[in-house]
Amino acid sequence: MGRTLVIIKPDAVERHLIGEIIKRFETAGFIVDGIKMLRLRPEDARRFYAVHEGKPFLNELCEYMSSGPIVPMIIKSDGETFARVRKFIGATDPAKAEPGTIRRDLAINMTKNSVHASDSSENAEIEIKFFFG
Ligand code: CMP
User: Fold this and answer.
1) Of 8, 22, 31, 126, which one has the greatest count of Cβ atoms within 10 A?
2) Do the domain assignments include residue 126?
3) Ligand 1 pocket mutation pick from 9, 57, 63 by most atoms within 8 angstroms of CB
4) Residue among 75, 2, 3 at smallest CA distance from 32
């Protein structure tokens, strides 16, 4: 089985959507293999999003990701889990996400897009280590 990291972001936690999001993953056959709730300090968010260093949205992103509690989860499935999960959650911009995806149905905008998911199996392992050691 492959695994990836998913984060339920502050906008979804604040709107009481933790259960809804986990239910969607479990109903689709994904397995939750690790979960915790925590609040990042801005410098931790910056470390987590180091690949986006230099991007115009980085400051807003880090401020937002440290604005409230988040729920990182290890998600497992058969096959290429990172790719399956990214398709399942929908495009980064909720307005462009496929109907029926988490981001299309629940997200607010490009920053407050409710969930994060690793973009490769290599990054999945790095990101899992970041939160779960
Ligand atoms: P995420 O999957 O967490 O990875 C990086 C995040 O940056 C992304 O989701 C968005 O929430 C945020 N972001 C904000 N603006 C942009 C943008 N223009 N392009 C990509 N990501 C963006």
Assistant:
1) 8
2) yes
3) 57
4) 75
